[in-house]
Structure formats: C-alpha cells, structure tokens
Amino acid sequence: MATLVPGEKARMYALGGLMRGGASRGGYIDGRVYVSIGGVDVGYIRDDAHVGTLINSLSITQQLDEVPDTATLRINAAVPPAGGEVVISIGSQNGRRLFAGYGLTRNQLYAADKPANIQADFSAVDYTWLLAFAKVTKQYRNVSGTAIIADLIATYGAANGFTTHAVQANLPALEITFTDEDVPNAITRLMRRLGGHWFVDYAKDVHAWIGEDATMAPPMALTPTHPSLADVRATVDQTQALTRCYVEHRGSSLLAGVAAGETILPVEAIDAFVVAPDVFLKVTLPGADGGAKHLTFTGMTPSAGGTLVGPGIAPTSAPIVSGVVSASGMEAGAHSYAYTFVTAAGETKPSAVATFDTAIPAPPTAPLLIQNAPRPEPPGTYGSNFTIGASFRFAVAYCYSAALDPAQDSPIGPPSASITAISNNDPLNPTNSAEIWVGVLMPAPAGVQWAVVYVSTNGGPFYRWTYAQNTSPGAAPYTATLSTRGAVNPMSGPTPPATANARQANLTAIAVGPTGTTARKIYRTKANQAPLLLVTTLANNTATTYGPDAAADATLGAAAPAGDTSGLKSPEGTINPGATAVIVASPSVFQATGGWAVVAEQAIRYTGVSATALTGVPASGYGAVVGPIQYNTAIRAAPLLTGVTVDEPIEAGAEIYAVVRVDDAAAQATLAARLGVATGIREEWIQDRRLSYGEAKARGQATLAVRPLDALSISYRCRDISTSVGKTITVNLPAPTNIVGTFRIQAVTITNFRPRPEQPPTFLVQASSTRFTFEDWLRIMRTKE
Does pTM top 0.70 for this prediction? Predict the structure, then answer.
C-alpha cells in the first residue's frame, strides 16, 4: 500500500461550485486529475476523440500494509510502453500524488473494432511492488523495530530510491527471523508483531508506526455536518470473537524413549522453554500417525557439560614437603599438599597428599645416652680428636631441611650429663682421646629429615657437631648411634635457634605430566582442615619444585577438582551392555538426584552419582546401556525438563514444543453471560515455531486484541482528499445513526474523477474497529503469523 506524500495538508473544496471571487471561504484546491506514463503527460479527456486518459476509466485502490495499491486506466489514441512509471496527481502535474507506481500490465484494443481507434488499458501497482524484488534471510536479536526497518531498506531498497524518513523512532526491540521472505512481507510481519502498521508513500518513503502515523494529516471527522459524507453503513460481527488462544512456539527433540511414570525428559536444548503457569508442553509423537499429547512440567536443568567414560587419571605420586623455618607464612597447624595435571581441556584429579605440620613439636624431652668408651684396638686404629681432659655435653635437635640447612633446625632438647674426654692409650697417638658414643632415641615428627647433634665444650655454647638421617620420617622411636671418631671440630659452627616454627614449605618431586599437559596446579589445605584449595599454577610441564609456600590460608583459591576433566587418556576398559553403573572421570557434571547422560549415541538414565560413577542405571529397557561403551568415550549430561508426569511410553525422536496459553478473562465472562452458558472460552491455536516465549505471549495478546467480541466495521463515501488507508477516522454520528468511535481505514477506492476543478473524486472507504480486516486475519492464519 502506498498513499499520499506527507507534508501536503488537506484543504476543503468549494462543493457548491466556484465562487465568483475565487474559492469559498473554507479554501479551495483544484480537483482536476493529471496523469503521466513514463514521464509523458497523458492528461485526461471526457471522450474518445483525443489522445489522453478516459476519465471514467480511472480508478485507484489502496490496501493496508504490504498489499500494493493499484490503478487502472484506459489511454485513448495511443499505446504507451508497458513498465513505464505511472504518476497520478491532483491539482497540477506536480500537485498532490494520488498514485505512483509502474504500469505492468497493458492490454491493447480497438474502440468499436476499428483499428484506427487504438486504445490501451493499463493496470499499475505502486512502489511496494518494486520493494519486493529482493528476498530477505536475516535474524535480529533484541533490535529496535526502527533499526530493523532501516537495515532492511538500506540493504534491499536504498539502491532503488527507498528511504525511511517517516519510520517512527524508537519502535520496541524484539527478536525476529526472516527466511527467504520479500521485504514487504518481512516488514508486515515485523509491524504485526509490534502491533503497528506501515506503507510506502508515493515518494518511496517508508512509513511505520504504532498508534497513529504522525507524518500524515488525519481525514475530516465523520459528523452530521460533513460536507460530502454519504452512503454510511455499519456492521457488527461477533463470529470472529476469540477469548483464548494457544501459541505454539519453539521447542526441542526428545533424546531417548521414556517409560510411563517417568518424571524427567531428556532434550537437545532447553533455551526455548520457560517455567510459568501459562506454559505447557506439546509432544508430537514420531510416525505419520503418531499424533500429539500435552504435558505439564515444573522445572528445567541445563547441561553442566561432559567428561569421559572411565576412572580418569591423577598424578601417581605425592609431592615431598620440607619446612622452612620462618616467623611468618601459613597458619600454624597441619597442612596437606597435592597437585594436578592441567590440559587445554581441563584438569586431572589431585595426586596423593603429603602432610606438613607448621606447629613443630618441642625438641626431645629426654637427654641423649652418652658413653665414654676407650677401646683396646690395635694402636693407631681408633680415637677422636676431642681434647683429653676437656668436659663435653651433647643435645639433639630436629632438622626439617633435606639439605641440612641449619636455619631449619629446631631448638635443642635437654643436654646430656657432662663427660670428660679420656685418653685412648694409643702408643702411636698418645694425644688421641677415646671415642665417645652418642645414642639417639626419639620420635620423628612429620617433616623431620635429620637428627642433628649439638655439643658444648667446657660449659661453652652449643655448636652443631654431627647428624644422622631419618630414613623413616614419622616412625617412632627414631634411633641412631653416633661416634666422635672422625667428627667435625665441635669448637665452632652454627648455634641452635631459640625458636623454630616452619611457617613456610618447599615442595619437591612434583611429577611432570603426560603429553598434552600444559601446566600443574598445586593445592593445599587450610590449617587442620580437609578441602584442598589452590595455592598456585606452574605454567609449564617441566618444573619439579616450588617454594617456599608462605601463602596465608585466606589467600587460597578454588577447590581442587573432584573428577578428571583433562581429557588425558584413562586406562583401557569397557562398560558392558546391561551395566547398572557407568564409571566416569568427573561425576560432578551430573545431577546427584539422577538424570540422563548421552554417550556413543546412547541416552542413559541414572538415579544417582557416586564418587566415581553414575549409579542406578536400569539393566534393560528405556535408558539402559544397550551397547558396549569404551573408556575414554565422551559422555555429557543431557538438558532436562523436570516435574513431568508421563502416562504412557514416549519413543525417542518425539518433538517437544512449548505452548503458551493466553486468556481474556473479562471477555470470557461477558460472552458466557450473553449466551447464558457456563463458560465463554472460545479457543484458537496458533503455531509459529520461530518465536520465543515472550514473543509468543505478545502474539497471543495481540491476536485476542484483534478478535474482540464485537467487531464493528463501517463503509462510507466522501470527497475528502485527505482520506487514506492506514489513517484513523473519528466517527461521531448520533441518533438515529448511533455510530461513535475511532476506526482504522482498511481500504479505499478512488473513482468518479471529474473534469471540473471544483469537484474532487469520490473516496469509497472501508474502516474497522480492529486493526485488521477479515481478509488480513485469514492471511495471518495461512502464514502461521
């Protein structure tokens, strides 16, 4: 539909003929019509004696929205070429356009069967036809209707002179998809979704609006004083009344057959569904005669991802942890360490843990066992370099450093009794002292690497003397026997620390991962707690050490994974048909209360999850393992519709669509009262599987709005040249006519063009209290729109 060019204001004609001094007091516009085809003026004539348009042949029909306006006319004494641009204006050749488009159909004839009397009948369509040349395949998500139309015209119409100056600003945003649709149909569907209208005017400018088109002057109201109103007719139609509609919108496919009594449906995707009181499911059963059924549901569960079949992997060895004595660092208490392998796909399970206690126990409480034991061995064989006659005491400390770092020694335990070095009675070495034997008997707390013996000479300070390795850390008792023979000079060296709290830790023996490993993550527990939390990431697969770790518990990060998401290959294995459990590398992606999993083209029902597997799988029937599943096969959690009651089995492949029910409760009550029946529900089903829930609900509400209980339509004739399709006409015709209201002009036919300037043509108008005519509604239903 095209109509008048905006900006031209309607003015009243002098209906009683021209006044002698010019137009009547109400103003005057020349009512003569001017016609050109292909830029050539063909005017109009009243008879068949001259070249031009036969005035009685001229007729213009306007329709709302994408239906093109048409014009028919007969040219006398000439045959212009088909396809020429047809312009029909009033007042002058450059005056207000009543029509503009293309003469696409030409029928040549002879008047009175005489070849000399050549004539041509032309049928023309407006510019909307030209806009329909291109096909649109495009999707818009949350885009303003204004922007959508601007994009469509810029892409498909601007090259042919179309513009969008008269599109209403800030039309609502929506999601809409066009598939192989021509531009006029696409804009019509868009504006119907928004509850508005559109047309292309005779200057190729697109108008689109909700409510009223602010760019066009309204026609003169219909009142008893209207100067040209005639042949008014009104019709009230209740046959199309609608009080409830169901809008079937997007959905998904059922992944597996389900048994009667099932409460969960596995589907490909759940993004089309919304849990709401006005939404239910339509299940289209597979097969030519499968039929359909309706189900309710109360919830949805998205897929949490997938993993691999099999036990997954983890590093096989724990790290080695040694304390670093420091006044600051992690909180006092027991801490456990573990690490994982990291890949591009995810992460393995944690390794075994190594425990380290920052709360170092006090040094041994018992003195060492000391024995002064000269031996009668052959001369020159034995002895020590302790000074004969000097007095010595011994004490032991813990060392937490594998490298015997004295900074990681604990305070010493209670010193031994004093003992005096005696001669070895060696004739070859008379100054040699006899050996002193030191026996170490103590527990070995976790993390202790060495027993370190300190010695004091003649009551002086204690110095580090010698040490024995703890070959079994954590064992109790820890025993060692040391001799002064060959020992280091005890007269100088490190002295024992006053305090020793290993508040930091070094890690060694961090294994490198298999091929595909890109990093390792180190985890630690908080003091005296169990959960492993992230300390750091080694962003390589080469380093085997880390430290010192001085991180406070509050700075620890994410929890260690409960399963394996690394994608690294598990050991070989098979889940056999009929198995009631499926081992998986990472059970955490599955619902603890049960659900469905998809693996190797099988959909498997499970009722629970253990630390290593999906459990409660039926041995046979729906959801059973029906074929062997190899370890390292991908398995994923299926999206679920929950709270469903299945009363009979449904086979795999069924299509499930969401349906929104839209009610007009007031209209239902009114209709029931009128008819004297129990319910006034009159239903209709609408199907458009491209819509989202919000769009479907808006569609249902719009459908009810255009199907009221009382659809009032009127028709009339007038000569008001501001009359145009799409405009609103105000009617105030009191008794006895009794028509009052606002109507949308749906169709206009312009005829009875006159050769006199004071007589405009006749406009035959059809208007409706609803936005669409009955024909519009039928077109909507045919296209599922």
Answer: no
